[in-house]
Structures are given as C-alpha cells and as structure tokens.
Design a protein that fits this description.
Structural class: mainly alpha
CATH superfamily of the largest domain: Glycerol uptake facilitator protein
Shape: elongated
CATH topology of the largest domain: Glycerol uptake facilitator protein
Radius of gyration: 29 Å
Order of helices and strands: EEHHHHHHHHHHHHHHHHHH
Largest sheet: 2 strands, antiparallel
Number of strands: 2
CATH class of the largest domain: Mainly Alpha
CATH architecture of the largest domain: Up-down Bundle
Helix content: 55-70%
Number of helices: 18
C-alpha cells in the first residue's frame, strides 16, 4: 500500500482503481514541494506501476520547470478514466457463443466423455442437495417458499458446470448458433449432443447410486428417501405434452442462464446470472432432462425400501402395505418413454430455438441471408441432423 496524502484508492464496477490526485488533476508542484511530501523519483516510479496496472497508462507528479517568473497555475482539470463495462453486450455474447460452439464441435471424444460425466454428477449433486433441504420444508414455510429454496440450492449444479468447467447437454443446445452461422455442421452438433447426453446420464446415475448406498435417504425418519420417491413419481405422472412443454420452458431458462453468465466478466456476476433463472425453473416445476436422470433413477432405487414406503404412504393417501402398489408405475420404462424422451425434445426446442436461434437471428444473421430455419420445429430438427 502506498502511503501518501495525495494517493487515492476506491473500488469501481470494473475493479479497484488507484491513482495520485496530483497527477490525475494536472497539478504541478515545484521540486521543493515534491521533496516536502516525499515524492522522490523512485516513489513516482512505484506509483506509476500501480496506476498503469489499475488504470492503464498513467502520469505521475513532475516538478514544475524553473522559470525566471512564476507562471499562474491553471485550474486542475480532471483526467477522464476509461471504465470498461461490467458485462458484454448481447451481440458480443452471440459472437462468443458461436466461438464456443466451434470449440465444442472439435473437442476430442475423451474430453467430452469425462466433462460430460462430471456435468451429470454436478447436476445430480444439486438434485441431492435440493431433496435433502426440502424434504420436510413445506410444512414449516409453505409450498411456495419450499420451492424457492429448492431452486436456490439447485443452482449449485449449473454453477459447478459453468465455473468449474464441464459439458452439459442442455447448455450445449446453444451450439445451434455455430451451425446457423455456418461455422460447424449439423453432424458435429449431433456428435456433441449424443456423447454429452450419454455421458451426463452416466454421471447422474452414478450419483443416484451413491446416494442410495450412502444411506443419506434414511435421515429424518427416511423422509429424505420418501421425498426422492415422491419427486420421481410425480415426474413420471406427467402427460407427454406436459413433460414436453415443461422441458421447453426449463431449457429456455437454463440457456438464458448460460447466456447471461457468458456476458459477465467476474465470478460473482456469473453466479448471480445463473441463480435467478435456475431458481425460476425449479420453483415453477419445469423439467430438466439431466436432472431427471438423477431424480427418477434415485426414486426407482429407493421405492423398495420399507422405511421409505412407510414415510411416503401418507402423501400417497394409502397405508404402508399399499404404498408399493401405488408406486407400480415408477419404473425404468416409464422413466424413458413418459419423461426422458419428451423432456429431452422439449429441452432441445427451448434452448436451440427460443434462445440460440432467436438471438442469432437478431444479432448475427446478415440482412441478405435467408434463414436456415424451416417454418416448423420438425423441419428445423430434420435439417440440423441431416446437414
């Protein structure tokens, strides 16, 4: 820290700023005045290094040239400090998203596999945390605040993916911008989505299995296990159209979270940009395909536990002996065909069309260029996978 009465420091929206007010306002001091305040040549050099780091090129106090007659001093004039914006404008984000898509399209298989497994694990960790936190919260704070809390803690998953670095299928729906821009092919998009989707599945299933083996579900009188089973049962109880639409709405918000975090320049801003959209989709009950790869298998694995059935029976409005029958529809077939397939299709539509395609068409598509997107969603998907 520089000790001088004329040295000023403050935090700006783009970071810390340090400067000498003598130099900043264009004041001139005589050599004697500089000596009085201890402003030696060595100290001026040190001050300049700090100012160059925080402000860019900067001046330091210099002695007033000796003249036979003293000249009147000019009034100090402030030197404008260039402050960079705290986030990138949407057009820059769109261009950066295309660059990210190019990089993802050429990622080696091993990288996609490992990072995809990690992303599945991260989302599953968030799902487990949400289950533990909210297992009996509604009876104390009500359904709305319980949902809000569940959404807040579930944000951990995408924070780990974005800040930690991982490949998440739902976020990679934005790769469609690279295809629309003509930088990557539809086959490259399909390759990435296929590898990452299956890798996410492996990671999510792994954590679901660990969750069962850990015995965490037994806490609070197996209420945590009951919460996991009831959550899974509710998800496979949706109609196909409900699951599809909830998938669209979910990944619309997830990809907006990714988009906003890409605009941010620091970690705290990225986290805040993730938290609000993710909290919204969880609190509203929208459907995330990768999260469901954890939630539903965890429920399937736990539904045979006697303690879980006893704890879940009141919510199912049956006695413990009949709870197993009430959960008969909670199985792998229902998971795949009644939830995972429609939710996955919805996630692709929500992220690729409502975020990626719409923003590309506004910020990047040349005015003379005919859009690649067909009139219908089916046409767009067909064109993408056969390009």
């Amino acid at each position: 820290m520089i000790k001088c009465e004329h040295w000023k420091e403050y935090d700006s929206i783009s970071g810390p700023i340090s400067y000498c007010e003598i130099a900043a306002f264009g004041s001139r001091l005589t050599a004697q005045e500089l000596e009085t305040i201890g402003c030696t040549a060595e100290k001026r050099k040190a001050c300049k290094q700090v100012m160059d780091f925080t402000m860019g090129a900067a001046a330091t106090p210099q002695p007033e040239p000796e003249t036979p007659s003293s000249r009147p001093r000019l009034e100090p004039q402030p030197i404008p400090v260039k402050v960079s914006p705290s986030c990138e404008p949407p057009k820059e984000v769109a261009a950066a998203t295309v660059q990210v898509a190019e990089r993802k399209a050429t990622s080696p298989f091993f990288n996609l596999l490992v990072l995809g497994i990690l992303a599945g694990c991260y989302i599953a960790f968030a799902g487990a945390l949400s289950t533990v936190i909210t297992n009996d919260l509604a009876k104390y704070v009500g359904d709305g605040l319980s949902r809000l809390t569940g959404g807040l803690v579930f944000s951990l998953g995408l924070i780990l993916v974005v800040i930690g670095g991982a490949e998440l299928f739902t976020g990679n729906a934005l790769m469609v911008t690279g295809w629309l821009e003509g930088k990557i092919s539809g086959r490259q998009v399909a390759r990435n989505w296929t590898i990452v989707f299956l890798a996410n599945f492996l990671g999510a299933i792994l954590i679901a299995w660990f969750f069962v083996l850990s015995g965490v579900w037994e806490m609070n009188g197996a209420q945590i296990g009951a919460k996991a089973v009831l959550t899974a049962n509710g998800k496979i109880g949706l109609t196909w159209s409900e699951a599809l639409v909830r998938g669209i709405l979910c990944n619309w918000l997830v990809c907006l979270a990714v988009w906003l975090s890409s605009a941010s320049k620091d970690g705290v801003s990225k986290i805040l940009c993730i938290v609000f959209p993710i909290t919204a989709f969880v609190a509203c009950g929208f459907e995330h395909s990768i999260a469901n790869m954890y939630f539903i298998p965890a429920g399937i694995m736990l539904k045979s536990q006697a303690a879980v059935l006893a704890a879940a029976a009141p919510a199912l409005a049956v006695d413990p002996a009949a709870a197993a029958g009430a959960l008969a529809n909670l199985n792998w077939g229902s998971f795949i065909f009644k939830n995972l397939i429609p939710v996955t299709i919805g996630n692709i539509i929500g992220g690729a069309i409502f975020v990626g395609t719409f923003y590309w068409s506004v910020f990047l598509k040349p005015s003379w260029r005919k859009p690649k997107l067909a009139v219908t969603v089916a046409g767009m998907l067909t064109r993408l996978f056969t390009d």
